Amino acid sequence: MAKLYLILSVCMGIVLGIGSATFFYAGGYSYLLDDPSACNNCHIMDNQYYSWTKSSHRSVAVCNDCHTPRSFGRKWITKGLNGWNHSYAFTSDNFHEPIQINTRNRNITEENCRYCHQMVTSNITFHETENTKIQCTSCHRSAGHLK
């Protein structure tokens, strides 16, 4: 039985060691911060990062302000889910170029647009239903990122 524990301990040590080294080498810790340059760790985000640096939002919002939920729990669930999805897509070289936002993340971004701009949007959206709901980016395509 002691031999089994030794083998399991060695295997766990190897997995943790390789995982930690990979996390450090890939700059994984940077994703735990709010620094927009972390989003630019992958070349596929170059255009989005550059366009954000030239947009009006650069002085009032970072990537997480628009692309993650405001609540603590939902934010970290989203960051973890997106981190996993991005890691898998980039490692397997299975992603669309140019990168495209998925429905879940588009809904989060829409929610954040409406939250930050609620003084304006409340006058527009008070009468909408699920059938008549429009997205902010339908009219404001270059908000946050210049197109």
Plain-language structure description:
This protein is an all-alpha fold and 147 residues long. It has one domain (39-147): Di-heme elbow motif domain (Multiheme cytochrome fold), CATH 1.10.3820. It is built from seven helices and no strands. α5 packs across α6 (118-125).
List its traits.
147 residues, 57% helix, 7 helices, mainly alpha, Multiheme cytochrome fold
Could you name the CATH class? Mainly Alpha
The coarse overall form would be: elongated
Intertermini distance: 62 Å
For the secondary structure, the number of strands is 0
Q: How many distinct folded domains? A: 1
How much strand content do the residues show?
under 5%
**What is the average per-residue confidence, as pLDDT, rounded to a whole number?**
86
The structure class reads mainly alpha
CATH architecture annotation: Orthogonal Bundle
H/E topology pattern: HHHHHHH
Q: Mind summarizing the main beta sheet?
A: none
Radius of gyration: 20 Å
Helix tally equals 7
- The level of helicity is 55-70%
Which spans have pLDDT < 50 for at least 5 consecutive residues?
A: none
Give the name of the CATH superfamily.
Di-heme elbow motif domain
CATH fold annotation: Multiheme cytochrome fold
Short note summarizing the structure:
This protein has helices spanning 2-25, 46-54, 63-67, 72-91, 103-116, 118-125, 136-139. It is mainly alpha-helical and 147 residues long.
Give the SSE layout:
Blueprint: H1 2-25, H2 46-54, H3 63-67, H4 72-91, H5 103-116, H6 118-125, H7 136-139
